[in-house]
Specification:
The protein starts with a helix and ends with a strand. The protein has 28 helices and 30 strands. β13 and β14 form a beta hairpin. Strands 12, 13, 14, 16, 19 and 30 form a six-stranded antiparallel sheet that branches. Strands 25-24-26-27-28 form a five-stranded antiparallel sheet, covered by helices on one side. 39% of the residues lie in helices and 17% in strands. It folds into four domains: 375 residues, no CATH class; 149 residues, no CATH class; 131 residues, Sandwich (Jelly Rolls); 144 residues, no CATH class.
Length: 919
């Protein structure tokens, strides 16, 4: 009880001035990403979806409108949303959020206290264990500077790390106990592991790392009779029980998360910001910017991190504390383990190993020291050398590679250091026990160590942001719905990508009016959720202005042409112009130009209908959609009306302007909502992809989730008509969603292999090859999943790419400047002579490649299947096969640009759509 009281008091004191603004402010920084508002919105949405709408909190139609978002890989902090639900109902969301953060802080300290005290007592086998070392461990873990910085950044999920020490405590107990106590401990380990996963799924990586290091290093309980010592089978059974309980507790979120990760639909390509979001080696001993005496101006530090001018690549969350580190070193260096309070060297080694491995992983894929990751080793390499680190290996592990934030490994690092610092402090206390007078010295040392730890980790006062919405949002809430809201700043954001100047406060203000907004914070999302908005000229122009880019005349005209129809499609009734936050770039100095452009382009009233606190609300006068409503695909701008898996417009597709559907399921967004008693009819003109011997195609159609029927398609263009069922209530906001589901898809190059042949060589191209020759030489290889590879050497003259004839792998690429001299032509001849027969060779010329092309070189090219009579100055794009013979390759040559595509069509085609009509 004394420990909980101490941690509660320190929580109130060290988060000051939060205690004076519990219902109106939350920890966060106005010039950073406003992530705190994402967590407030998440808590509100959980309550709204579960209690008001009786729907799943794991999906919302209110963000990224009209697409909506799955919130499965969202940084939800699901545990706090559930636990804080009664507080929401009794008070308000900021109050619930603040109390949950306090709860996380004091239970973090208490969990580390319980874990460390059990370790000390378990090792000596003689209770009671000393109180102070365990309290010190709790102070370090709960009030470490990294937790305070995460709160100040609004990263509430990363600050909620209380369940890790509880889970480890009961896993270690289960490994050492016997009988019912062991099974009870295993069940509790699973319970707290489930709580940990519900807080943030990425914490599973930290728990797994700790268990992999600690469990093998646990000492066997020698005090127990040999017959009662757990066998390996019993240990595995206990782990299985813990895993089952954890899966049961977190299953609502765990199972969808695994399914989504296996589906591969989320844009997690590459390394993300792993290098930027890594600890710097110097950051371990550099106090954080929030320290009142040792730090720096917090807004300036955040701005420096944004612009790349800071000492480290990111905001410093790696500081472990010099006193903390010194005490941990004492624990690691002392040889008198039994008198230090942790008798089993094997167990202590596990915590040392966890600290070292966590520190190493937190440094990210490449070593950084004082912001540098390239080092000059006596000019070994002109660009400098790098030092790869073990985190790079995690990039190649499924599931684990979704964690692109190495510096968060500071979480298990701080827990390990807290345990080690407790052991080090107990060692020093034991050494003083033999002095006279011992007790006063021990008490004095304990007070000094506690004060020193709290001082070096001090991050005070805690920055706060005001959660109170401007008054106009309350007025907006009184407007009859449904409708959508377009807000400035306008932006879309996920964990690795931002389009525009997104302001998450707008997302939080949604809790007042409850209507969809066009932007939002997705955290993780399939690529199309961004692509849809990025391809629309109006949004390109507005976000470009926010980011200092004036729209080009063509883009400006396209935005103006699209604006009214787009507002009608999305049912946008209000434009809300929010003023900038001082010091928050880029919107702070572009908002007026963005507002002025929006007022010119959008169909809005000239004067705002609401205006207060610097916020202006304009009514949008979007024209109602006409009936009948018709879209001509391939012939007009239909991008706003298309969901995922639609290809590019084609002016002549089997005699019509149309677009291919390149997936099994897609959507159309139509600005028509059925009204009660209104009879609507939907007609689509389609043609299936068909080939000799292929199966018959089917097309199933649904309107706003209601099935309209399934039809079998015959080759050629045909019209399909569906009656839309009557509705009992007025239609919802925005577009109707027409779902189209085909029976199958097929790539023409697979269905009709002859389409992939390289000219008349009889050899099929193993991959799709695009060649463009003239002032530049471009050779692009397109793999089976649509991935693109540059295969050109980019030299003046003749560029070659040699491919494996079976796999399409790029074996070599060379360039020969045959515009310069005969020696290059001779080198070309010699090179082609050693290319094995049957190899696929791609040729692209740059500038005048024929100037010094010798007869021997022409003959060598002829053996690839190229013509021997290349005209002087002609551009050549060709794909040949070594030994094929003169003129049988795939060839495009012209006085100017020469373009060639070989390999057939790899698009997964289902059907093409000419037009759609609602009447």
């Amino acid at each position: 009880m004394a420990a909980l009281t101490l941690f509660s008091f320190l929580t109130l004191a060290l988060t000051y001035p939060l205690v004076t603004h519990l219902t109106t402010h939350v920890p966060g920084s106005a010039t950073w990403a406003f992530d705190e508002y994402t967590f407030l919105w998440s808590a509100w949405w959980f309550k709204t979806a579960a209690l008001d709408l009786h729907s799943s909190p794991l999906h919302t139609h209110l963000l990224f409108y009209p697409l909506g978002l799955d919130l499965i890989l969202y940084t939800y902090n699901f545990f706090h949303a559930v636990l804080g639900l009664p507080l929401q109902l009794a008070g308000n969301v900021p109050l619930a959020s603040n109390l949950m953060l306090w709860f996380a802080t004091l239970t973090s300290g208490y969990g580390a206290f319980l874990l460390t005290r059990w370790l000390l007592r378990s090792a000596d086998q003689r209770p009671p264990a000393p109180l102070f070392p365990a309290l010190l461990a709790g102070l370090i873990y709960a009030f470490g500077a990294n937790r305070a910085v995460y709160q100040a950044l609004g990263h509430y999920n990363i600050a909620s790390v209380q369940w890790l020490p509880f889970a480890l405590l009961y896993f270690l107990k289960a490994a050492q106990a016997d009988g019912r106590a062991a099974w009870r401990a295993a069940a509790l380990a699973g319970l707290f592991s489930g709580f940990l996963l519900l807080t943030d799924m990425t914490f599973a990586v930290f728990l797994a790392l700790a268990l992999l290091v600690l469990l093998p290093m646990q000492p066997r309980p020698n005090a127990a009779p040999p017959a009662r010592r757990p066998t390996w089978g019993q240990q595995l059974a206990r782990l299985a029980l813990a895993g089952a309980v954890a899966a049961l507790v977190s299953g609502y979120l765990l199972l969808p998360t695994v399914r989504e990760m296996l589906g591969g639909r989320y844009g997690l390509e590459g390394w993300g910001d792993a290098l930027k979001l890594s600890n710097d080696l110097a950051s371990f001993v550099t106090p954080v910017a929030l320290h009142p005496l040792l730090g720096q101006n917090w807004p300036q530090a955040l701005r420096a991190a944004e612009t790349g001018s800071a000492r480290f690549s990111d905001v410093n969350t790696g500081f472990v504390g010099i006193v903390t580190l010194a005490l941990a070193l004492v624990a690691g260096l002392t040889a008198r383990w039994s008198k230090s309070g942790l008798a089993a060297w094997q167990a202590l080694a596990g915590w040392i190993g966890l600290a070292l491995l966590s520190a190493l992983l937190s440094l990210g894929p490449l070593l950084q020291i004082n912001g540098q990751w390239r080092f000059n080793l006596d000019n070994l390499l002109p660009e400098g050398v790098t030092f790869p680190l073990p985190f790079a290996l995690l990039h190649y592990l499924p599931f684990i590679n979704a964690n692109r934030t190495p510096n968060r490994f500071s979480i298990p690092l701080m827990l390990a250091l807290a345990v080690l610092a407790a052991v080090g402090s107990q060692h020093l206390r034991t050494r003083l026990a033999g002095w006279r007078p011992g007790r006063p010295l021990i008490a004095g040392l304990s007070g000094v160590l506690a004060a020193a730890v709290l001082f070096e980790h001090l991050a005070w006062p805690l920055p706060l942001t005001d959660t109170r919405p401007p008054a106009v949002y309350s007025q907006l809430a009184q407007e009859p719905g449904p409708f959508a809201v377009l807000s400035l700043p306008l932006g879309w954001r996920n964990g690795f990508r931002v389009f525009g100047s997104e302001d998450t406060r707008v997302q939080w203000y949604q809790h007042l009016h409850g209507q969809p907004i066009i932007g939002g914070n997705a955290v993780r999302n399939p690529p199309f959720k961004f692509d849809y908005f990025e391809r629309l000229p109006l949004f390109q122009a507005l976000t470009g202005l926010e980011m200092y880019r004036t729209p080009a005349p063509a883009l400006d005209q396209a935005a103006r042409d699209q604006a009214a129809a787009l507002m009608s499609l999305l049912n946008v009734r209000y434009l809300v112009v929010n003023p900038p936050v001082p010091g928050r770039y880029p919107y702070v100095d572009t908002w007026q130009a963005t507002r002025d452009y929006a007022l010119q382009v959008l169909p809005v009233d000239p004067q705002p209908i609401f205006e207060a606190d610097g916020v202006q609300v304009y009514r949008v006068q979007a024209p109602p959609p006409p009936l009948p409503f018709e879209l001509d695909f391939g012939g007009q701008d239909t991008l706003p009306y298309r969901g995922d898996h639609w290809d590019v417009d084609e002016a002549d597709l089997a005699g019509a302007s149309a677009v291919w559907m390149t997936g099994r399921q897609t959507e159309l967004f139509l600005p028509v909502q059925p009204q009660p008693g209104q009879k609507l009819r939907l007609t689509l003109r389609v043609t299936p992809y068909s080939y000799p011997g292929g199966p018959g195609q089917t097309l199933a159609v649904a309107w706003n989730g209601r099935a309209l029927g399934q039809r079998s398609l015959t080759p050629g263009w045909q019209e399909l008509t569906f009656d839309v069922p009557d509705v009992q209530e007025t239609g919802g906001s925005g577009p109707s969603i027409i779902s189209l589901t085909s029976g199958w898809t097929q790539a023409p190059r697979n269905a009709q292999p002859e389409s992939a042949l390289i000219g008349a060589t009889g050899v099929a191209a193993p991959v799709i090859i695009e060649v463009h020759a003239f002032s530049e030489a471009f050779i692009t290889l397109i793999g089976p999943e649509g991935e693109r590879f540059d295969a050109s050497a980019g030299r003046r003259g003749i560029n070659l790419a040699v491919l494996d004839e079976k796999t399409g792998a790029l074996l070599d690429k060379r360039g020969f400047d045959t515009a310069a001299n005969d020696f290059e032509a001779e080198a070309l001849t010699a090179y082609l002579a050693q290319v094995p027969a049957g190899r696929v060779v791609v040729v692209a010329t740059k500038e005048d490649a024929t100037r010094h092309l010798t007869a021997a070189a022409r003959a060598a090219l002829g053996r690839l299947g190229l013509p021997a009579d290349l005209a002087a100055g002609a551009s050549l794009a060709a794909v040949g096969v070594q030994g094929a013979g003169n003129g049988v390759g795939a060839i495009a040559w012209a006085p100017g640009d020469a373009y060639l595509k070989v390999g057939g069509d790899a698009r997964p085609l289902a059907f093409a759509l000419d037009w759609v009509r609602v009447q």
